[in-house]
Each structure stands twice: as structure tokens, then as C-alpha cells.
Amino acid sequence: MNQVTRKAYAKINLGLDVLRRRPDGYHEVKMVMQTVGIFDTLTFRKGQGKEGLPDISLSVDSKELPCDKGNLIYRAAELIMETYGVKEGVDITLKKNIPIAAGMAGGSSDAAAVFHGLNKLFGLSMSLQDMQKLGVKIGADVPYCIMGGTALSEGIGEILTPVAAPPSASLLIAKPDINVSTKFVYENLHADTLKEHPDIDGMVKALQEGSLEGITGRMGNVLETVTIKKYPVIRQIKDIMIANGAENALMSGSGPTVFGIYTGKERAGEAYKAMEKLGLARQIYVTEFV
Ligand code: ATP
Fold this sequence. Notes:
Elements: E1 3-21, E2 27-47, E3 56-60, H1 72-83, E4 89-95, H2 106-121, H3 128-135, H4 142-147, E5 150-155, E6 159-162, E7 170-176, H5 182-187, H6 200-209, H7 212-216, E8 220-221, H8 224-230, H9 233-243, E9 248-251, E10 258-262, H10 265-278, E11 281-288
Adenosine-5'-triphosphate is lined by residues 65, 71-73, 100-108, 110, 141, 182, 253-254.
């Protein structure tokens, strides 16, 4: 096999709670992760090794992203090839579609695609667990992205429990034209003094019962306490989604992307038009759970 292509899907958080800040600076989280139908495409081709060392070449169709070690794709490829002693080289191309620095784990999902892609290209026989164990070294969300689907994520994000997928629904996803640094959000979150916590256990139960109402009724993200204060546009987008028929709307991850859940594609389509007209977000998508 000389070429492998993988889709790297974006995620949203149906619920996101932060339990505490650990002494090492990491935050202990409790989140419900969900894959959605927005994806990047990565292609992997065997290349030449350089003086007995693996040579990694990365080309990206977005000017915003680096092609060197600054890119999680590069870092994941290097880690895998060093760990498994791969002597050949690899040429990787990325077609970027997931909004960048948006709270949709685009970079982590690309890194996860590298695990699957190189596993197949070089016949490495990594199990899902092998990939996840190595993947966490690249980022806390990478182990989840390696498995995808619906999952409860605990610890720093590495303790994963698969959960039943939600009933089908339409999603409107909108990213306002602002960049939110994940670091800024967590640094300004006072996890110990949070007054309200989303009912993540209730959300998991609603998922197991297949109740869309139970899910939408429990959507909550404690990181909104930081981002909405600084960027009121996030609140505005949520309000517009709800005013245009969403069962509920929430910021994903550390933001600024907002998603709304709709019971029909037509409703989501109408809300898309309303959102486009108001000009608060340039990147808008109608999609579904994957
Ligand atoms: P999360 O939801 O995990 O917080 P995010 O969606 O907020 O992630 P990403 O799009 O994954 O953020 O990227 C955050 C930063 O990581 C970007 O500013 C970018 O420079 C860097 N980065 C490195 N590699 C990638 C990649 N392959 N795709 C996107 N961003 C990348």
C-alpha cells in the first residue's frame, strides 16, 4: 500500500464541566464529546527516508497553519515513526475545512487521522488502545478523536467511555470571526468557585435512553462563563439560533464556535439563512451527528 486517505472529523461538546484544576496545571474535566459531519481530508504517501531517518513532508492548503513541528500532524507523524522505527519517509497533504482555533478539536482530529493513516500505510498493527496511549502525548483530546463517535470524557480527557449516539437531528454550527485562545479561557476559569455545573450524568442517561429532549435540556458548558463575558457575540449567536427554532444552543469546547440542535433539516436551513443575514459569523454549516 503506497497511499492512504483519511477523513478527520470535528467534534462538539454536548456538555462540558470542569471539576478542578490539578496542581500540575491541567484541568480535570467531565465532558460529552460528539463527532459531527465537518471534516478535513488527509492523504498519506510513502516517501524517501533521509540518511536512515524518517523524512516527513507536510503540505497544507491553509495559510494560517504551519507545515513544520508547529503542526500537530507533523508532531504525531514524528512520534509514531520514531516509536515504531519507521525508516521510510511520508508525504502528507491536508485539505483543511474544520474552523481553526474554534473549539472543534480540528488539530487533535488531524493528529488522530495520522495515527490511523500511518498505521495502515506502514502496517504497524497498532491497536486502538496503543494509538490512544501514544496519542495523549500530542494532546488531551487526541485519544477521543482516535475513537470518535459519542463518548464521556474524564480525567484530562484521556479516560473515555463510549456512550449511545444521540437520536438523529440537524445541527447549525457558526464560528464568529474572533480567535479565542484555549489557554486564555482555562487560565481565567475559576473552577473551584463555579456556581453552576451541567448535569453530565443526566446527559449520559438521556443519551442511553435516546431522548433528544433529555439531551437538549441538559446542554451546558462552564467555559461560557469566561468567553461570553469577553465576547458577547457568542451569546448573540446562541440567542439567534434559539429564536430561529433550535431546541437549544451551546458553545463548543473553549469556543468561540456555537452549535444549535434542530429537529428538522428545514428548520436548521432557515436558521442558517437568518444567521448569514446578520453577518455575525462567516463560517456557518448545517450538518449532523456522525
Ligand atoms: P480544541 O477544541 O481541542 O481546543 P481548537 O478547535 O480550539 O481545539 P485547533 O483548530 O485544533 O483548535 O487549533 C488550535 C491551534 O493549534 C491553532 O491555533 C493552530 O495554530 C495549532 N495547530 C497545529 N496543528 C493544527 C492543525 N493540524 N489544525 C489546526 N490547528 C493546528
